[in-house]
Amino acid sequence: MNGADDSDKLRAENDALRAELDETNQGVLALYAELDNQAEQLRQASELKSRFLSYMSHEFRTPLGSILSMTRLLDDELDGPLTTEQHKQLAFVSTAARDLSDMVDDLLDLAKIEAGRITISPAWFELMDLFSALRGMFRPIVDTTEADLIFEAPEGMPRLYTDDKKLAQILRNFISNALKFTPRGEVRVTAQMEGADRVRFAVSDTGIGIPEELQNVLFEDFAQIDSPLQKRLRGTGLGLSLCRQFAHLLGGEVGLESAAGVGSVFHVVLPLKLAEDTADAAE
């Protein structure tokens, strides 16, 4: 009898264990289904956000272009002379429209990157040509500030094979930020070889600097510095995040060194020649 009782007891325990395993398996399957559902919802939400950013960015561009065109026409005094005060007001409108246009471009680039639709177009080019174009681009801004913008001539530097427009956008963001946060002093742009096959571009300034505790988050989306200057010079907080993502697409990396009250150095290190498989993967 004891043997039969033990057998019945063991069978009952096995049945209970099997029922518990079945219940656990059902719970795991339900969990997997819920995770799949949540993943699909996240994918749809991300796709919707990217589509929204792309759509709104395109829609904003047309009226912004009209505003900029009209301010140029008025500033040229084609319809009659303007007073000094009116020229100042037009300059304010034009600057605000350009800032908004830059924000729209940042949002559109973010949408393209998140949707995997960014295009990399590498080509051979001279650094001197890149620096000359950037110098001309910033001349109107520098004329209205007390900071000097200095481009060190990249003498002896070889030609680069990468996407010069993406590189220019990275440096343009670095320079623009440096000028914003350098009320007086200088902003210096340099390029030098790092090893045998990489180039280090650096934008250094003598501005307000960045506290150490904020440096790790600056290259994240929508990150901004909490300072009186930042409150006066609002942006999307996307510029440095896009710099980081563009650098990765070009096979490089970004970084910074800074001390509060002393200044900052933002840099991007890129391969001298973009690998063909890197460009193919980006596209």
Short description:
The chain is of the alpha+beta class and 283 residues long.
Report on this model:
This is histidine kinase. It catalyses: ATP + protein L-histidine = ADP + protein N-phospho-L-histidine. It is an enzyme of class 2 (transferase). Its EC number is 2.7.13.3. Helix content is 58%, strand content 17%. The protein is elongated, with a radius of gyration of 28 Å. It starts with a helix and ends with a helix.
Given the structure, what is the number of helices?
8
Could you state the CATH homologous superfamily of the largest domain?
Histidine kinase-like ATPase, C-terminal domain
Radius of gyration equals: 28 Å
| Overall mean confidence score, pLDDT | 82
- Distance between the first and last residues' Cα: 76 Å
Amount of beta strand: 15-25%
Strand-and-helix sequence, N→C? HHEHEEHEEHHHEEH
CATH fold name of the largest domain: Heat Shock Protein 90
| CATH architecture label name of the largest domain | 2-Layer Sandwich
CATH C-level label of the largest domain? Alpha Beta
Enzyme class: transferase
Pfam families: HATPase_c (PF02518), HisKA (PF00512)
GO molecular function: phosphorelay sensor kinase activity
Organism: Luteibacter rhizovicinus DSM 16549
Topology, element by element:
Layout: H1 2-75, H2 84-114, E1 123-125, H3 127-142, E2 146-151, E3 160-162, H4 164-180, E4 184-194, E5 198-205, H5 212-215, H6 228-232, H7 239-249, E6 253-259, E7 263-271, H8 276-282
Parallel strand pairs: 2-4
Antiparallel strand pairs: 1-3, 4-5, 5-7, 6-7
Organism: Luteibacter rhizovicinus DSM 16549
GO molecular function: phosphorelay sensor kinase activity
Catalytic activity: ATP + protein L-histidine = ADP + protein N-phospho-L-histidine
